[in-house]
Amino acid sequence: MRRLSLWLGAALVALVVLMALVSLVWTPYDPTLVVPGQRLQNPSAAHWLGTDAMGIDVFSRLLIGAQTTIVVGVVSVSIAAVLGVPLGMLSGQAGGWVDEVVMRVTDIAYAFPALLLAILLAARFGASPVTAMIAIGLATIPSFARVTRAGTTQVMSSEFVLAARASGTRWPGVSMRHVLPNIAPLIGVQASVTFALAILAEAALSYLGLSTAAIVPTWGKMLRDAQSVMFSAPLQALWPGLAIAMAVLGFNLLGDGLRDLLDPRLREVT
Amino acid sequence: MTLLAVRDLTVRFGRRRLVAVDSISFDLGPRQRLGIIGESGSGKTVTALALMGLLPETAQVSGSIQLAGRELVGLPDSAIARLRGDLMSMVFQEPMTALDPTMRVGRQVAEVLLLHAGRSGGPARAQVIEMLHRVGLSDSERVADSYPHQLSGGQRQRCLLAMALINSPDLVICDEPTTALDVTVQAKVLRLLDEVLTAESAACVFISHDLAVVSQVCSDVLVMLDGRIVEAGPVARLFTAPEHPYTRGLVATSRIDEVPPGARLPTVEDFFPREQAR
User: Fold this and answer.
1) Residue B153: which residues within 8 A CB-CB, separation 6 or more?
2) pTM (2 decimals)?
3) Burial of B209 (0-12, 13-18, 19+ CB in 10 A)
4) Which of A105, A194, A237, B165 is 20 to 30 A distant from A97 in Cα terms?
5) Is A198 left (phi over 0), alpha (psi -120 to 50) or beta?
6) Is residue B32 classed as helix, strand or coil in its secondary structure?
7) Distance of alpha carbon A219 from alpha carbon A198, whole angstroms
8) Minimum-distance CB partner of B85 among A96, A158, A167
9) Nearest to A218 by CA among A107, A70, A47
10) Taking phi first (over 0 means left), then psi (-120 to 50 degrees means alpha), and beta for anything else, what does residue B74 get?
11) How many contacts does A have with B, using Cβ atoms within 8 A?
C-alpha cells in the first residue's frame, strides 16, 4: 500500500514535470494565439482538448501552465525552506528563550491568513507570479520551522550528538554534520506536501486574479476564464481542474509515500 | 602530580535546584584508573558529564574540577570544547545510539582528528583504519566504510572505543561502556579497553553499576549513593573489607555464586535498609 502511494505520487509528479519540459520545446499551437473564428470548439483531432473562449488551443495552454506550476512550487518551497529550516534548527538547538521567541513569532505568523498576505502583497507590488510565490513562500515558513524544530530537538537529545560534542565538535559542526543529515527526510516530506499546497494556493490566487498577468497562461487563470462560460462549455473548467487535482494529488501522495518509507528509519533514530 | 582533582563538586538541576551530585571530591593521577559504581540515579553519569562539561544548561555546577592544572568549572563551553577530544574523551553506554546513523563510521572516528590534530582526510583515514584494527576490528577498511546499522553491537562499541582513544587523550571517561553488550562480548571489550588504555597511557574514570566489571579494569573505586561518595578505596580492600553497609550489600549481591542452593539470595536492603522503596 505504501509503495503504491509512493509510485503513484512519483508518476503523477513525473507527468507534470514532463508536461512542463515538453512545453519548453513544443506545443501543438501557440498558447497565446487568439483565433476568433475557433471559439469554444469541442475536442477534436486538431484540438485534442478543444479551444477556449478566445479560440486558444486548451492543450497548449495546459502544457505551458505546467511550467508556471513547477516554477511557483519550486520557488515558494525554496523560500519557505531556506528561511524556515535554519529558523527551526536555531530554535531547536539553542533552546531556552531563543526557542521561546522564535516559536511564539512562528505561532503568530501561522495565525495570519495566507490569503490576506497575498492580497496585501499584490496590492502593494502588483499582481504577478512573483508576488504570489513570495506570499506562498512566506506563509509556509512557519510549518517548515516547526517541523525542523521538532526534528532538531529529537536529534539534539540523541547520544550521538553528545558523542560528537564529547569529541570537541561545536554547534556549527553539530548542525551541519549531524542535525541536518538526520532531519533531511523530514524536510523532504515537508517540501513535497508544501509543494502541493503551493500549487493549490497559486491556482486560487490566479483564479482571484492576484497572481498572473493576463498573458501568462496558468491553470488557475484557465479556471477563471472558464467560469464565464461554465454553463455553455463545462469542459473548459474540467481540464485545468483535473490538471491541478493531479498535480496536488501527486505531490501529496509522494509526500505520504516518502513519510511511510522513511518512518522505520526515523523510529531507529530515537 | 594529579591529572584530575575534583573538589566539592555539586550539581543541581532546574528551578527547584534538585541535588544530583552532592559535594564529591576525588583525585586521579596520570594512568590511574578509577571506577565509580552506584545504582541508577546515584549521580554517576551526571558526574561524568560534569567532568566533560556536557551537562544541559539547566544544570548548576559548583565546586572545582581541575584537569591538568586547568579549572573547568565556570569555563565557557567554547573553551571546554577545545579540551574535549584532545585532553579528555568519553565512551558512551549505548553503541546503538552513540553513532550517527547517517554517517559512515570511519568519518565519525576521524572527526576528532580533523578537529584537533589538524589532519586532513587522507592521513586521518589511514590513522582511523589503523586504530580500528587496534581495537580488534580485523576488516577495518570495510568497517570504516560501513554505516552504523550495518555493524553489530560489539563492533559498534569497538568503534566508540577507537573514537575515544584515537587522539591519545590523557583522560578517558567510560560511562557503562559494556552494559548494552552480552557477557562474552563484554569480557572481550573490557580486555581490549585495558590494553588500549595501557598502550595510550591514558587515565580512566570507569562508571558502572557492576562491581565485577569495575574490578576487571580499575585499581581504585568510589561507591556513590544518592549523589554522595559513601566509600572509596582500592578494589581489593572494597571486596574483602567493605565498610559502608551499602557497599557490603553490593559485594554480597555480586557473590551469589557462593550462596548455597535453596538459600534465599541476598539483597542490598538486607545490609542497608532504606525508608522508602524507589
Assistant:
1) B95, B96, B180, B181, B185
2) 0.83
3) middle
4) A194
5) alpha
6) coil
7) 13
8) A167
9) A70
10) left
11) 77
| Rounded distance between C-alpha atoms, residue A151 and residue A129, angstroms | 32
According to the model, what pLDDT value does residue A266 have?
47
Letter for the amino acid at A256? Answer: D
Determine what percent of chain B is predicted with pLDDT higher than 70.
99
H runs (alpha helix) in chain B:
44-52, 77-83, 105-112, 121-134, 140-144, 153-165, 183-200, 211-217, 235-240, 245-253, 268-271
Report H helices in A126-217. Answer: 129-156, 159-166, 171-173, 180-207
Residue A127, burial from CB neighbour count under 10 angstroms (0-12, 13-18, 19+)? buried
**Chain B residue whose CA is closest to A159:** B98
Please, which pLDDT band fits residue B2 given cuts at 50, 70 and 90? confident
Contacts of A168 in chain B (CB under 8 A): 81-86, 112, 115-116
pLDDT number for residue A1: 55
Quick one: average pLDDT of B252-259? 80
Q: Which residues of A touch B93 (CB under 8 A)?
A: 159
* pLDDT of the residue at B266: 83
Question: What integer is the mean pLDDT of A64-82?
Answer: 92
User: pLDDT of A183-197, one tens digit each?
Assistant: 998 999 999 999 999
B131: how many CB neighbours lie within 10 A of its CB? 25
B100 touching chain A per CB within 8 A:
yes
> Which tens digit of pLDDT belongs to each residue from B63-94?
999 998 889 998 888 889 989 988 999 998 88
Adjacent-strand bridge partners of B173: B90, B205
Q: How far apart are CA B226 and CA B192, in angstroms?
A: 31
Three-state SS string over A94-125 comes to HCHHHHHHHHHHHHHHHHCCHHHHHHHHHHHH
Other Cβ atoms less than 10 A from the Cβ of A105: the count is: 14
CA B252/CA B229 separation, integer angstroms: 19
The complex's ipTM works out to: 0.86
pLDDT tens-digit map of A118-131: 888 888 888 888 88
Please write the tens of the pLDDT for every residue from A134-164. Answer: 999 999 999 999 999 999 999 999 999 999 9
Amino acid identity at A228? S
The answer to whether the beta carbons of residues B66 and B44 sit under 8 Å apart is no
C-alpha cell at B23: 559535594
Contact A164, A177 (CB under 8 A): yes
Average pLDDT over residues B246-263: 83
Whole-number average pLDDT of chain B? 88
Question: Which residue on chain B is closest to A170 by alpha carbon?
Answer: B81
pLDDT category at A84 given cuts 50, 70, 90 is: very high
- In which residue are the cell numbers 512519483 written? A10
How many angstroms separate the CA atoms of A24 and A12, rounded?
Answer: 19
Q: What is the C-alpha to C-alpha distance for residues B48 and B54, in angstroms, rounded to an integer?
A: 9
